Amino acid sequence: MLRKLFKYDFLAIGKNMWIFTIIAICLAVVACFTFNGIYEIGNFIGNAPSDRDMALGVSLMMAAVMLFALCLCGIIAYAVIGMIMILVRYYSNFFTDEGYLTFTLPVKTSTLLHSKILSGISWFAIIGVVVVLSFVAVATTIAAVTGDSYLWEVSDYYTVEPESISVIGEIIVGMTETISFVIAIIEPVLLMFLCVTLASVIARRARVVIGIGLFFAVNSVTSALVTAGDVFMSYITTEYFGYNYYIDTATQSVFYILLYGSILVVSYLLNRYLLKNKLNLI
Fold this sequence. Notes:
mainly alpha
């Protein structure tokens, strides 16, 4: 039954999200071509034979820059819309009139919740991949057109390998970073669902808006804690061990896992409890 529910929820979200996904990919392609045009227009302005040609070039440059910025904003908007679509599906299927029908199904509440979690995580992953690849494509285009290696230098800085390679260290870092990556995909979805559930239990109006507000409030606090924790862990490990790539990276990842892993578990258990015992469909 879980498989059928997941398929239904995934397709329900995808009814509109596939269209937005295609639009986001097209925006990334347009942004790449637009930046190339911006560079060419810049060369044209620099060698304009007359003031009239220069004025035309400036007008084209302004239009191209505006189009480029709109494309980037559109890609970001796609991510925001995707999160909203996941939330709306969860809310409408549980806390509106549709919820009365949902909870009459001969299925456990936990199974209904699991189907929402799986579909939400799946779409969250798809959205994340599209957004990341879109910006990577744009960044690659910028580096290729301008011949600037700064972007690659920044990438090398964050992926630099230590001078002394440790097999055990590589395994530990790889494991902790993999777990961190998995948690980073699952935790936001569970936290969003919990926030919407809390809002639906305690509020009568604007439940989705309140839920989104709760999510950003909690996320802001946890982001600040992660930043402070990273600095603290780096300081402690440096004081006791000196700078060591493996120890520094692993301890920061472990701190991330403990913090967001705890939020993940609490979000799931509390959400399941509220749905079973405190559900308010008024």
